[in-house]
């Protein structure tokens, strides 16, 4: 099911039906994100005319392209390579004409890659703010609201640079609701938030800032409207979840699809454990054997010193809350192949894992307390390792319930 979800979101399978009309002038491709190199390759394979461009991807996500330059930079915390590459992208768009076409290929992860700072902002501080927000428990919408005000390409920056050329955006969505302003922090759509909104977010999480940043945000109004342009979401968590559900139904399982789920990862894990209890008590919409599906992005407030991303934390919380449950299997993993800043996509467990872990000296509750989900699932050989998948439609979570025995 997990691999079916990834496969549905691969650019090779979803970009062909969305090619724009040929322009009278040049065609320039730009873009950023974990899937954007794969999108660029799929695009240029199907584009017979003149073509050039520049796309930025995280390290390890590069694929060979013949006409579009692929640059690599750091994610989720930006680095100088991203500053240079995104500055070069803006320079590439400086002399666009009305007869030209700009195609922007966006996917999750683009916000950290399009990081050329606004004038007067020190890049080292932009990095510090990014790290602080990642550890704070801020959700992706809050982080992006700040990024849009501090980085030139974001919040409509690419659209402003591309004018007066015709602009077409093709996006693989990793955000709740497929909000265009949130995918890669909306570089081709208007940013209707103000600098005061960004200041309020930084203040709520106790993130310190310099006088230069504070001044910029206090004077930043919502940006001028950007002319409507073609914007198409070509893949999303919804379509990927449908592909996974089809496999489950073919295998004879009922499906309870929770849709997009957000919130603190460990709290979501406890909530889903309670839902499992309702299923086995015949108090839910479905009965065993069944599979509970969910997607979307949770968040993690970092308090411990351990390793692990939001999928690992969710799954470890679910495991501890279901201690003693029979017939319950679960998997949680990110479709981009990277859970947080680790090298794993996520993890999985099967019935009896918690008790076997304790017998071998690995108490799951202790690991959860210190937020060390990676070490726990590594010790139990239950990490999901895919490497970069070169797509990104957010997290995939599945709980398979075979038994009707009530969890203790």
TrEMBL record:
Alphabetical GO CC annotations of the entry are: cytoplasm
Q: Could you tell me which SUPFAM superfamilies the record lists for this protein?
A: GckA/TtuD-like
Q: Do the record's keywords include Flavoprotein?
A: no
Gene3D superfamilies annotated for this entry? Answer: Glycerate kinase, MOFRL-like N-terminal domain, MOFRL domain
Q: Which domain of life is it from?
A: Bacteria
Q: Which InterPro entries match?
A: GK-like_C_sf, GK_N_sf, MOFRL, MOFRL_assoc_dom, MOFRL_protein
Q: Where is the MOFRL domain?
A: 290-395
Could you list this entry's UniProt keywords, alphabetically sorted.
Kinase, Transferase
An MF annotation (GO) of this entry: glycerate kinase activity
Q: Does the keyword Transferase apply?
A: yes
Domain MOFRL-associated, first and last residues per copy: 1-217
Q: What is this protein called?
A: Glycerate kinase
What organism does the UniProt record list as the source?
A: Alteriqipengyuania lutimaris
